[in-house]
Design brief:
The complex is a heterodimer of chains A (517) and B (89). Chain A is mainly α. In chain A, 59% of the residues lie in helices and 3% in strands. Chain A has a single domain, classed as Orthogonal Bundle (Ribonucleotide Reductase, subunit A), CATH 1.10.620.20. The radius of gyration of chain A is 24 Å and the shape is globular. Chain B has a single domain, classed as Alpha-Beta Complex (Phenol Hydroxylase P2 Protein), CATH 3.90.56. The chains are: A mainly alpha (517), B alpha+beta (89).
Chain lengths: 517, 89
């Protein structure tokens, strides 16, 4: 693209000042506290909103111009993808399960982020952050829409994607990403900015998008690669907004520092727990791997996050304490997650499988301290059982952590042979946690987390069956009823990849694409 | 000094930009990944409009980079002439 560069009458800095502050006014007949009612209760003190400036100095006119260009590029690639039967060019049909996981787990979060930034932007009295939040809010709805459009091309051929939003609001493991974002948007505007803008976008987003998008590129998925890059081109701006907001809040008043530190500690851990899904995607679900979860964590968190927290040390901000536990978990996280999804393949909207010999060798090489000793024997046993016709499907519902809502599958820090359990008694009820960090988050705001919609509790209470279901009839099959409630078809959308329609169809269609029949 | 980086899509538009960055930043190192180029530099990285214009022979608005950016790290400052990424510590 050769864009015409018009000679501007004003420089970038002047234009930014005119298009943000220049458009703002001081209200005369309404009180500031009535217009911005949520701005004080979190305890954050702001003295001068004009000190906040977007370092990209992007104004709405330029925003529309470049976003339009991104959309043109994206949709021409999507057309080419469809016209070229692009769905048959992915490495193998197992890859599609990554797309299913993304569409039902992540895309709905983009929409919630759209609402969250619209809300936060409305609440900030400063025109600088308000304009930046408006842009991010528009970006996020664009991401939701382009992801749905791109993946709809796969939905024409493969199973499990047909009702992703319905699934997002109901399926047991999807409550993990859903409750994470619900937690953020129900916080105050400053905590929302620290949770999503800083902790998620700045500290953790590279771990989600970069491996996912380069994974898509590596696995021949032109559709996901192109929406991924298109979304990612907005992320650099989101990261900048997240970092600037943190610096701005910290510079405004020293009393803000401990509040912000608590939020950073909480949201780094919350975000990391959600990334469990990404860890398993990288190590198990991409037929052609880009890098291991452990390597990705070392580059993007330990190295890059280390540089960030060193830079923020001048404000008195420290690396979140949970980083120590995360470092201990990096040899185990993806394996513990994949084992769980292998177990629960009957109740999920995507397929799982056991890694083949080459993949086991890759895992041994990437995880020399843990894989052969702890996880390979387990997989070999399951593989043997499957070969004998006893593919294991766990039908007992797991205990969930009250904060992150992940089943209690994680092991004690430093002892990968012992499951970690923590509990708290609160107002006569017992609550369970996967870790000290999730427990501490609950203890700080118990009234928020006791309200969590816990999928397993809801199933046991009979709230996850289709209307009119009678669980007392003889031979009642609770799993079958739950799948109906999820809008998932047993034997089609769930179970092992080996017995799936996806595997059979992909092989047949790819065969047709290369032969004259 | 900590590393700053800028990651761009691998395409025809970014080729001269990467060339310009390498000219202007002696510490810059290119890390080519699937469909993506990550440029790492020691503590500070500058993208200069003038260098890009010299290479491409056309006028360039640094905001065009918005279309091809993937991710970055460091504090940022953008003017009409330069985009700078830097750590203060």
């Amino acid at each position: 693209m050769d864009m015409t560069v018009a000679k501007k009458k004003l420089g970038l800095k002047e234009r930014y000042a005119v298009m943000t502050r220049g458009l703002d006014w001081t209200p005369s007949y309404q009180k500031m506290e009535d217009i911005y009612p949520y701005i004080t209760y979190e305890g954050i003190k702001i003295h001068d909103w004009d000190k906040w400036e977007d370092p990209f100095r992007l104004t709405m006119d330029a925003y529309w111009k470049y976003q339009a260009e991104k959309e043109r590029k994206l949709y021409s690639v999507l057309d080419a993808f469809t016209q070229n039967n692009g769905h048959l060019n992915v490495t193998d049909a197992r890859y599609l399960n990554t797309v299913k996981l993304f569409l039902s787990g992540i895309s709905p979060l983009e929409y919630v982020a759209h609402r969250g930034f619209a809300h936060a932007g409305r609440q900030f009295p400063g025109p600088g952050p308000r304009v930046a939040c408006l842009m991010q809010s528009l970006d996020e709805i664009r991401h939701a829409q382009t992801q749905v459009h791109a993946v709809s091309n796969y939905n024409k051929y493969y199973n499990g994607m047909h009702d992703f939003h319905h699934a997002h609001d109901r399926v047991w493991f999807l409550s993990v990403p859903k409750s994470f974002f619900d937690d953020a948007i129900t916080a105050g505007p400053f905590e929302f900015m620290v949770s999503i803008g800083f902790s998620f976008e700045y500290v953790l987003t590279n771990l989600l998008f970069v491996p996912f998008v380069s994974g898509a590129a590596y696995n021949g998925d032109m559709a996901a690669m192109t929406f991924g890059f298109s979304a990612q081109s907005d992320e650099a701006r989101h990261m900048t907004l997240g970092l600037e907001v943190i610096k701005f809040i910290l510079e405004q008043d020293p009393d803000n520092v401990p509040i912000v530190q608590r939020w950073i500690d909480k949201w780094t851990w919350r975000g990391y727990r959600v990334l469990t899904l990404v860890a398993m995607m990288m190590d198990y679900m991409l037929p052609k791997r880009t890098m291991s979860w452990k390597e990705s964590w070392e580059i993007y968190f330990e190295e890059n996050g280390g540089a960030l927290f060193k830079d923020l040390a001048r404000y008195g901000i420290k690396m979140p304490q949970c980083a120590e536990q995360i470092a201990l978990e990096k040899d185990h996280l993806s394996h513990q997650a994949w084992s769980t999804f292998y177990n629960y393949a009957a109740a999920a909207n995507f397929h799982t499988w056991m890694p083949d010999e080459d993949e086991m060798a890759w895992l041994s090489a990437k995880y020399p301290n843990s894989f052969d000793k702890l996880y390979r024997p387990r997989y070999e046993f399951w593989r043997e059982q499957a070969a004998k016709g006893n593919r294991f499907y766990n039908k007992t519902l797991p205990m969930l952590c009250q904060t992150c809502q992940i089943p209690m599958i994680f092991t004690e820090p430093g002892d990968p042979t012992k499951i970690c359990y923590r509990e708290v008694d609160y107002k006569g009820d017992k609550y369970h946690f996967c870790s000290d960090h999730c427990k501490a988050i609950f203890e700080h705001e118990p009234e928020k987390y006791v309200q969590a919609w816990m999928p397993v509790h809801q199933i046991y209470q009979g709230n996850c069956f289709p209307e009119g279901t009678d669980p007392t009839v003889e031979g009642f099959d609770p799993l079958a009823a739950v799948l109906k409630y999820y809008h998932l078809e047993h034997g089609r959308d769930n179970l092992d990849f080996d017995v799936s329609e996806d595997k059979k169809n992909f092989a047949e269609w790819r065969g047709q694409a290369t032969k004259n029949i | 000094m900590s590393t700053v980086f800028l990651a761009l899509q691998t395409n025809e538009e970014t080729r001269p930009i990467i060339e310009a960055i390498l000219q202007d930043n002696p510490s810059a190192v290119v890390d080519e990944q699937p469909a993506m180029v990550k440029i790492n530099a020691d503590g500070r990285l500058v993208v200069r409009r003038q260098t890009i214009e010299d290479i491409t022979g056309r006028d360039y608005d640094l905001q065009e980079l918005q279309v091809n950016m993937i991710t970055m790290s460091g504090n940022l400052d953008q003017t009409d002439d330069e985009i700078t990424l830097f750590w203060k510590a």
